[in-house]
Amino acid sequence: MDKRVLGIDENGLGPVMGPLVVTGTLLKNGGDDNIWFEDIADSKLFFASREINSFSRIEETAVSVFYLWKKRLPCSPAELLNIFCGKSECLSGARICVGNIPEKFIWAETESTKRRCEAFSKWAVKNNVEIENIKSVCVCPKRINDFVAKGDTKLLLDFLTFCRIVKNVPAKKGLDVQAGKIGGLKFYKTYLRYGFPDYEPVILEEKEEISLYALKKKRMGFRMGFFMDVEQKSFPAALSSITGKYVRELFMAGIRKKLGIRENISGYHDRKTKRYIASLSFKKFPADCVLRIK
After folding, report:
1. Confidence of residue 174 (pLDDT cuts 50, 70, 90)
2. Of the candidates 201, 48, 64, the residue with the CA atom closest to the CA atom of residue 122
3. Under 8 Å CB-to-CB from 53, ≥6 apart: which residues?
4. Distance separating alpha carbons of residues 101 and 98, to the nearest angstrom
5. What was the pLDDT predicted at 166?
6. What is the spatial distance between Cα 30 and Cα 36, in angstroms, rounded to a whole number?
7. How far apart are CA 117 and CA 208, in angstroms?
8. How many whole angstroms separate alpha carbon 230 and alpha carbon 27?
9. C-alpha distance from residue 274 to each of 27, 86, 268, 271, 289 (Å)
10. What SS3 class is residue 263?
């Protein structure tokens, strides 16, 4: 039986602007920690918002992941988002993000992307690695704000979105889930009972760097681990980290276009982002479509 490993990571839990994106990449025979594709690393090391080459690298890599999964190149960023995320719904109807996605790939050169796709494909064949599925869930600021306004926390929302990714895998028997730690939490058993009410979580290990559980249900069951710096320890999680970063950047590009912002502001707690937020007018659309309450 092929080993199936689901790597999950989030992008954008802490910003003041833009969505939270949680991504899961399901690999067959992807559990060997020694099997990594060339320069793949976690998105924090792979990407620096001030370097234009960083945008090129994440776009090339996200397209390469699409190519490895679907055996073809995506026609546009919109198609890539549609395949990774599914149909996006707008709670307010303003469509600030989804209505302004770039029509063409904006950072990477076509020939460079094709070369990376070919290299990635050859590496996968050589190492018997197959992408079975990819799923990104984009949680817009309004959804985050509504969730927090009810008295819940972003950490719980993040965890439930992780669970949604796992539930997207139809057959879980023998599945190994490698997820990033959520907000530095060490204990997850109570959360797992809440997120997977049909399974009984059993503690295998609980430490600062790893919290590991077996989730049991009659003859079915799977393992779920939460790792500190998972992008550096799990190849499918590293792919999820980079792909999710690209998905978030596409939504941020849509936001910037709608707001008339020409610079690549990150949406995080930096001076440039805060300067632009202070200058924004929200007369034509609700502020909580763009900005986080907490």
Report:
1. confident
2. 64
3. none
4. 6
5. 97
6. 9
7. 37
8. 15
9. 39, 31, 8, 5, 16
10. coil
Q: What is the pTM of this model?
A: 0.93
For residues 217 and 198, the answer to whether their CB atoms sit within 8 Å is yes
Closest CA to 227 of 208, 210, 251, 239: 210
Give the Cα separation of 128 and 30 in Å (integer): 8
Q: Can you tell me which residue has the tokens 């990376």?
A: 116
Closest listed residue to residue 213, CA positions, set 258, 252, 181, 261: 181
Q: How far apart are the C-alpha atoms of 5 and 132, rounded to whole Å?
A: 10
Distance from C-alpha of 181 to C-alpha of 184, rounded to nearest angstrom: 6
Q: How far is CA 252 from CA 13, 50, 74, 141, 154, in A?
A: 14, 15, 20, 12, 20
Of 3-12, 224-233, 281-290, minimum mean pLDDT range: 281-290
Q: How high is the pLDDT of residue 51?
A: 60
What residue has token string 């792979």?
46
Q: Of 73, 30, 59, 88, nearest to 233 (Cα)?
A: 30
